[in-house]
Fold this sequence. Notes:
Blueprint: H1 6-10, E1 20-22, E2 33-39, E3 44-49, E4 54-56, E5 61-65, E6 68-72, E7 93-102, E8 105-108, E9 117-119, E10 122-124, H2 126-134, E11 139-146, E12 152-158, H3 166-176, E13 185-188, H4 196-204
Parallel strand pairs: 1-2, 12-13
Antiparallel strand pairs: 2-3, 3-4, 5-6, 6-7, 7-8, 9-10, 11-12
Amino acid sequence: DLAALSAQAARRPYAALRFAGSPGAAEAPGLPLRETWGIAETQGLFALHDGTGFRPVHPASLRLEGDVLEIQAPSLLSGYCGEAEALTPDGFLRTGQPAGLAGEAFIPSGPRPDGCFHRDGLVVTPAALVRFLARQPGVEEAAVGAGPDGALVGFIRPLPDAAPDAAALLEACREALAVSGQPARIEVVAELPADPAAAATALLGA
């Protein structure tokens, strides 16, 4: 329990600590926790949850283009190689995150169109797993679906006369990919599912 560490904390340089941030919903560790929102493009922290939504940490700012969040901060990256359209002419990042406004804060309102989502405080990028699986020997094409809890399932259609081993592919994923992007299961199929998410949910619930 973090509260039990208060005596130790008093002897440390961080005795003035008033709150800690969490990239997921706050639990109850005995100290105040503030839910945070951030992305790698801002070097991490961008906003703190104020009870109604995520409010940018000054001097960061946000706006909506339609219902999609755009953000700007001193720590924002200067751009992507070969992807100039990721930033607006006046320096805001097009995050792709659907959102609504609550005063000066924003509230995420749905999944990102690129399929990325947060799980256990980490960004999960299914497209990265698709690309990795499609490059493996014996694989013709791949698809990825996420179950209700965000666990990923990879589906691969093998090349003619090839017999990829699902266990070997899982091990390759563990060696090459971040934990957040590793599949819980890989299925070798004759045809890729039309709805990978539904197929993943059915498999993980089996």
